[in-house]
Give the backbone structure.
Amino acid sequence: MTDSPENLLKTPLHALHVELGARMVPFAGYDMPVQYPAGILKEHLHTRAKAGLFDVSHMGQVRLTGDDPAAALESLVPGDIKGLGRGRMRYTLFTSETGGILDDLMVTNAGDHLFLVVNAARKEHDIAHLRERLKGKAEVEPLPDAALMALQGPDAAGVLARFVPEAATMKFMTLLPATFNGIPVLITRSGYTGEDGYEISCACADAETIARALLAEAEVEAIGLGARDSLRLEAGLCLYGHDIDETTTPVEAALEWALSKRRREEGGFLGAEVILGQLKTGAQRRRVGIRPDGRAPAREHTEIADEAGNRLGEITSGGFGPTVNGPVAMGYVGIGRAAEGSPLALMVRGKPLAARVAAMPFVPQRYYRG
Amino acid sequence: MTVKYTKDHEWVRVEGDVATVGISDYAQSQLGDVVFVELPEVGRELTQGKEAAVVESVKAASEVFAPASGTVTEVNADLEGEPAKVNTGAEGDGWFFRMTLANPAELDGLMDEAAYKDFVEGLH
């Protein structure tokens, strides 16, 4: 399939994006808004100052049912799913037999089923993986008729409370089934910006009504994929296919926190031998935050070298951080250079650009802990 | 004073022996918020159609090509601290650099303002 417009899928908010003057681009097989007339910089800053509404309906929503879907899913992910209380949500990873990462995802205990949100570009793969590996143990039900929106930023809670009062007191990483102006929705307090906020799942047919109601609030602006990327980069969050993939392990990716305590002891997930072995011995390389000196951004695939010009690794995400007001990046370096403050040289257009390993997130996370 | 445009959306304004170069207002609108500009060194020899500068928006880096051959005589130092001038004044105080023209006849192959306007409209 090519990316010509006629082959691209449309989310239920497509017409609204066009009406709002969005610049549409192909992304994971969908025609998606990269930015609106305000532009990426203003959209980014607006999200951190007030509230931004993102269409993330291209992402895969999947329901997992069966006698014990949590036990079944644990064979494919290193997170503690059995211990996930009703209404609780967790970030985890589909690992491969060789210890790589097949995708990252959110898993929510929705009571009678598990609710999964996976990356748009990986959803067909993930659904096939789940069906093949969990055959006879769990039923995999994709939800193509469900839309997904994210409302993110410091004013998100105040705005959503006007429609769903009980959303205000939800804790970070929890689920609330609710109604929005009488429309059934599934709300989680989560997101991909480092800010407080929510993701709202609803029927595709209801998505535009909800989006228009939220956009009518003074604090809310529509935000495109461009700002979504710069927001998540400043928050130090991985983008699948860039910062993590089948060739990176959770330990190399500095995602040890996603390896739940019980699962470290018990194993029992794909690639556990490799991953848990690496957890003990350490990996040879590590994903780190990088701050280039000066103003020039270092983009994805920029080579990272030492002072002598020896290759250390490469940038996996990089650009300009509007809130940081300077260039930010992440990438992999040999473990000897992974400590905060380590000097690096980034080979930008053939010239070494001085940089330093920096702590992530680049901006403080502002999740709601209650 | 003549202003000419390239198919790559650079403009060049000739006043006497000096040519001033920048990117068109259409180009800045397509790039979005400019956050960094890499300018050539003064004294660098440029060749028409070859890379002369780099302009970075939040999203991506784009090359700026020399609209004519010649030598760089001055760069717009303001862009270092205020790259957003490229957005607010692409064809004014957001200029990139000034250069001598090795072969003024090269400019004959470029578009005038009216032709460039038609060219941009044809892109939609």
